[in-house]
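Q: Sequence in, structure out?
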Amino acid sequence: MTSNSSELAYRLLGEHFGHSSFRGSQQEIITTLLNGESCVVIMPTGSGKSLCYQIPALALAGTEQPAAPSETGAPLTVVISPLIALMKDQVDSLQRRKIAATFINSSLSKNEREKRYADVSSGKYVLLYVTPERFRKPEFLAVLGKRTIRLLAVDEAHCISEWGHDFRPDYTKLGEIRRLVGNPVTVALTATATPDVQRDILSQLNLAPKTRIFHEGIDRLNLELRVEEVWDADEKQEAIADVLERWEDEPGSGIIYFTLIRTLTEFSERLQAAEIPHVCYHGDLDRRERRAIQDEFMSGTVRLVLATNAFGMGVDKEDIRFVVHAEVPGSMESYYQEIGRAGRDGKPAECTLLYDQRDLNTQMEFIRWSNPDAEFYERAWHLLTHSTEQIRAFGIDWLRERLCDRQRHDRRIETVLSLLQRYGVIDDEIDLSQLELNGELPEELRSESSRAAKLLRDQKRLYALVQYIQSEERRNFIREYFGCLEA
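A: Exactly. Output:
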């Protein structure tokens, strides 16, 4: 990066983000990208990953204001994210900073989407947020063809890898997509990537083996990591009460995570009986309720939220003083992501995991549900192709009765439908009344060896969490697990 580019980066940092200096590796990453070199960035949650591509996007565009309509406009930075829920918040924040950013996703009406297509084509925006699934649309590719794409940012890059904990099939197409848009400089960003995942990111994106990896480590020294063994719900309640008492006189807020909605509801009733104010957040609430609860928590109106892992994406709140796992999470990756929401202001925060061995049975059951074998996929596919009308009429319960021996709590069919939707074979795994099949059963889901390998990986992730719980050197265990062996 030339001295002029460096001055521009600092000016953009001050004018738009209100900072006078970069943190950690941010400046070096920005320098690398502006020098035309791709990189992989692994930073703890809340460390400022997005700034690493937002500043280069503005510097490459050469303007902080929307470009005048023209054939191509200023160079465009495309940001790929799997999280529709985050895009609006991120774009709203950028627009408040007078940055020409927008998003295009399935939350838009047809008219809104077409308007944004036209605006992107005309050069109005310099930052565009999309999901990887958007690249399935020929009309979207045509829009991108009218712009010069100088930078591609892949957020939550662990989704690109089957070794990762949140695999997204469309992410595996990003290497080809990158080629289609001219192999722009690319930055892949994530907070959680084991060495296997790091190698897969490089391979899937067709990045050179010597592409630089910026690993900021995983240590958050302001977080106190605690594990307490408990034997029943009463002991869990006592442990939670102890955490609340430790922080009751401190400003800030807290999150208590649960695996099961029924357990969350039980402890909500216990807290209500103890007259402890709180709100509850889980996937069975409708979108408006979830948004209202998140807004209450973010504004500080309510200090405590009881939540399943559906809560957290988009929660960038600096003063979360404690995160309690009232039930054992499913993997080291999930645990690390969730405790990463604590103490983002750099002040002391507590992360307490309550370990009841019986919770492992719940997670083993979840692993079984999320890993149907190839034979189950074939049976489900046979019904989807040969009993389409019945499925449209009677829905998921009809499918469950035929595939799961009438076991109401078996959720393997939800996994099948979700993966078929992710692969683009069906449009909506929830609304089967309009069921249409857009392709064949993907080979990856037909393969017994592939399914068995996925099951084994998930089991190993849960076992790693048990090893962490039993470890006497938990910080070192986390460092080793995520391939970060610095002292």
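Residues 63-71 have pLDDT under 50 and may be disordered.
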